[in-house]
Amino acid sequence: MKHFIDQCRQLIGSTHVLTDSSDMTSYLTDYRQRYIGTAAAILKPANTEQVAEIVKLCAQHRIAITPQGGNTGLVLGSVPDQTGRSIVLSLLRLNQIRHIDDINNTITVEAGCILQQVQNAANSVDRLFPLSLASEGSCTIGGNLSSNAGGTAVLHYGNCRALCLGLEVVTPQGDIWNGLRALRKDNSGYDLRDVYIGAEGTLGVITAAVLQLFPKPASQLTAFVAINSVEAALALLNLARSNSKDTVLSAFEIMSSYSLALVKQHFPELKQPALKEHPYYVLIEFSSQDSEAANCAALENLMTIALDTGTAQDAVLATSLAQSNTLWQLRESISSAQAAEGKNIKHDISLPISQIGTFIQQTDALLQQKFNGCRMVTFGHLGDGNLHYNVSAPKNSSIDDFLAQQNAINRVVYDSVAQFSGSISAEHGLGAQKRDEILRYKSPVEMQLMRSIKQALDPLNIMNPGKVVQPLP
Fold first, then answer.
1. Name one GO biological process term (predicted).
2. How many whole angstroms separate alpha carbon 279 and alpha carbon 364?
3. Per-residue pLDDT at 207
4. Residue 129 lies in a domain
5. Which of 1, 127, 381, 399 could form a disulfide with 386 if both were Cys (CB 3.0 to 4.6 A apart)?
6. Cβ–Cβ < 8 Å for 429, 32
7. Residue 460 has pLDDT above 80, yes or no
8. pTM of the model as a whole
9. What CATH number is attached to the domain comprising 86?
10. Average pLDDT value for residue range 81-87
């Protein structure tokens, strides 16, 4: 290992090879501060060529690689295991905006670019890069692509896979595949881009990408709506779709009353809308390329119909960008508020949209039967079927005792998800946390196909081993 570390120092400079434990801790600790891995070193290359040379050295010495961006993942996909026979490959220095083509509506960026940096670069040429996440100030494009991130704009723009046209990837052999094609049509063989997106670094290292840009909306308006049930939210979603003919329904988020109460408790400085308490709330965003007046008329018409029919109980319309940002901040602060309340058990699931109400009703009841008093923090992207269905411990109970039941709680939730033909991972990925869990819910044929791809591309099993899928024996 010493010889390998010395070679790395010669390659990228001693400053960018971290071996002191105090320097390594932040790279080895998962985002939720619950797991700490070990590694021989943290390597911070400056460009794709250095990444390729590091991978070649790792293949030669049979050293595992954990690619890492902003380390904001929630399923232990971006931290190493505890064997100590791996390195963390930090891509944060690959942070250049390589090219913006405002005619083709594309931007070519390196994997270490922070998402907010890409959003700002798009804005500088009067364009929109629509991927939006609560962690956009720290997560990286490479990590977004590796987990096929979703966020709040999937309803209209799609997830990361839909936003990416081309990739640059370093293979497990240290070769560089230049697939940075800024094409919307390219039917010239297997779509290698889609193999790497969502693979969580298990098949290669994404080092750059061509991303799609969109015209900036001339108007974006937000409404915060009180409703009595998830079924009412689904009815409101159908109304919103039918009333957005001249506008775009760009976001439709749901949050339970308890979710919002946690935000009020832990972030009292955030101004809450002047609405009476109801079981659920919906955040709706309409966007338009036309005038703000037309957009406002569409949203007001929707609210009039929803209130007159009893679909909605009350509503607040943002009349300024500042008010809209405040409403969005309430939604984006739910995870932080739940963390401030105490440790919890997260579930990032997706379901057929029409089944979400029945799923919540049935699964809530099952959890209360088996884990009486558990508190449900339910929120998410209702418009695309992605629910963050999180479970907090009963009030005044032992957190350790509660977390000891995590596997049993997961089983109730995931079995229910399977019953409704859903997925146990909507946008967070599998990582190490759900790698074995997925075996219960994917067919042997599907798992064998995944293992075959892993074996074919990474026969030495050095790319993020232990994540997503176990290799063939």
1. respiratory electron transport chain
2. 14
3. 98
4. yes
5. 381
6. no
7. yes
8. 0.93
9. 3.30.43.10
10. 93
The pLDDT of residue 372: 94
Structural domains in the chain (count):
3
Say if residue 257 is in the same domain as residue 328. Answer: yes
* Domain with 7 in it: 2-90
Q: Which two tokens stand for residue 271?
A: 């101004």
Mapped onto helix, strand or coil, the DSSP state of residue 365 is helix
| Closest to 324 (Cα-Cα) out of 219, 226, 246 | 219
Show which of 43, 71, 90 is a domain's final residue: 90
Q: What is the pLDDT of residues 272-325, one digit of tens each?
A: 898 999 999 999 999 888 778 888 888 899 999 999 999 999 999 997 888 899
Convert the pLDDT of each residue in 120-133 to its tens digit: 999 999 999 999 99
Q: Two tokens at 135? A: 């962690």
CA atoms within 13 A on the CB side of 103: 0
CA atoms of 79 and 97, how far apart (whole Å): 26
Closest CA to 24 of 37, 13, 14: 37
Q: Is residue 161 part of a domain?
A: yes
Q: Could you tell me the sign of the dihedral formed by the alpha carbons of 36, 38, 42, 48, in that order? A: negative
Spatial distance between the Cα atoms of 63 and 442, rounded to a whole number of angstroms: 30
Residue 291 and residue 325 in one domain: yes
* 155 and 234 both lie in a single domain: no
* Same domain flag for 203 and 236: no
**Residue 471 confidence (pLDDT):** 74
Beta-sheet strands, E only, within 23-134: 41-43, 64-68, 86-90, 97-101, 106-110, 127-128
Residue 104, classified by CB atoms within 10 Å of its CB into exposed (0-12), middle (13-18) or buried (19+), is middle
- The answer to the question of residue 114 being in a domain is yes
Q: Is 62 in the same domain as 101?
A: no
Question: What contacts 145, CB < 8 A, 6 or more positions away?
Answer: 111, 160, 164, 167, 196, 197, 198, 206, 209
Asked if pLDDT for residue 437 goes beyond 80, the answer is yes
- Report DSSP letters for 379-430, one per residue: EEEGGGTEEEEEEEPPTT--HHHHHTTHHHHHHHHHHHHHHTT-BS-SSS--
3-state secondary structure of 147: coil
**What DSSP assignment string belongs to 272-314?**
PPS----SEEEEEEEEESS-HHHHHHHHHHHHHHHHHTTS-SE
Of 305, 335, 365, which marks where a domain is finished?
335
d(CA 419, CA 340): 32
Q: Report the first-to-last Cα separation within the chain, whole angstroms.
A: 26
What was the pLDDT predicted at 177?
98
**What's the confidence (pLDDT) of residue 294?**
80
Give the up-direction half-sphere exposure of residue 260: CA atoms within 13 A in the CB hemisphere: 24
Residue 398 lies in a domain: no
Q: What is the pLDDT of residues 204-236, one digit of tens each?
A: 999 999 999 999 988 889 999 999 999 999 999
Tell me the average pLDDT of the chain: 95
Dmax (CA) of the chain: 74
DSSP annotation of 437 reads G
